[in-house]
Amino acid sequence: MVKPHHKPLAAYRVLSYVCIGLLFLAALFSLLVGLSLSIIKPIYILRVFSTRTGQPVSSVATELRFGVWGVCASSSLRQPTFFSNFGQCFGPQIGYAIPQSIISLSGVSPEIINVVLQSLYVVLVLHLVAAGMSFLTLISSLFLASHTLSILALVLSIATALVSTVVFAIDLAVVLVAKDNISRLGTTLHFSAEWGNGPWLGLSAAILTWLAVIALSARACYCFGVRQHDKF
After folding, report:
1. Closest Cα partner for 163 from 117, 97, 116, 213?
2. What GO CC terms are in its UniProt record (predicted)?
3. Domain 4-221: which CATH number of 1.10.10.200, 1.20.140.150, 1.20.120.430, 3.40.50.2300
4. Rounded to whole angstroms, how far apart are CA atoms 24 and 137?
5. Burial per residue of 16-42, b for 16 or more beta-carbon CB atoms within 10 angstroms, e otherwise
6. What span, in angstroms and rounded, lies between the C-alpha atoms of 89 and 9?
7. Cβ(94)–Cβ(121) under 8 Å?
8. Are strands 88-90 and 191-195 parallel, antiparallel or unpaired?
9. Distance CA 17, CA 11 (A)
10. Which residues sit opposite 126 in a β-bridge?
């Protein structure tokens, strides 16, 4: 027979619902980045684009968008929008290498492309790990009536928050290293790099998970207004 305090949502229901909402969004954001371009094409880590002006409109690739599963090359003739016109895409593939045909069309230095690709495989693994850990923590937050299980939920949430923070730091490093390498090559390259939406989704996931840590800490230590015998 299942003990009453081991049943889901047996107590601290408001706190559980808050944690469920925070962790569900965190898991969703981490999963979206983990399945980014070229699986979910509107979501990408980094954009490298031509800064040349006065060039005729053509089908030659002037922009590369990097995700953790692939890359898309687009031209000034067909600029990508949020939902369409992503150009020629390569992938999905784990630990992908960009075909030489795309590199030659875009004119981007192979050295810069290698800098980006070296970190993307780690990003892929950790984003999906963070999403899975968020779901596990979400499930454990249903059982806050048990003090033991609430401690377990807190430990899982802290581990998830740390992983999410590391993932965002890697996303940050990928973009900053690429931008730094491009700037050091000077004006002869005529390319620049900017943030994709993926790193900001990763940052949101980390913030939401840390908020869940605070909420679960309140239950574990009976602080921030949470009482030992709350049954709501």
Report:
1. 213
2. cell division site; growing cell tip; plasma membrane
3. 1.20.140.150
4. 10
5. bebbbebbebbbbbbbbbbbbbbebbb
6. 46
7. yes
8. unpaired
9. 11
10. none
Instruction: Tell me the domain boundaries of the chain.
Output: 4-221
Q: What is residue 191's DSSP assignment?
A: E
Terminal CA-CA length for the chain:
23
Residue type, 79: Q
Tens of pLDDT along the chain (232 residues) come to: 446 555 665 567 888 899 999 999 999 999 999 888 878 888 988 887 776 655 544 455 567 888 888 888 776 555 555 555 567 777 787 767 776 766 665 556 666 666 666 656 667 678 888 999 999 999 988 888 777 888 898 999 999 999 999 989 888 888 887 777 766 664 556 677 788 899 999 999 999 999 999 998 887 776 655 556 554 4
Place of tokens 């620049």: 192
CB 181 within 8 A of CB 189: no
Q: Which two tokens stand for residue 17?
A: 């619902």
Cis peptide bond N-terminal to 38, omega within 30: yes
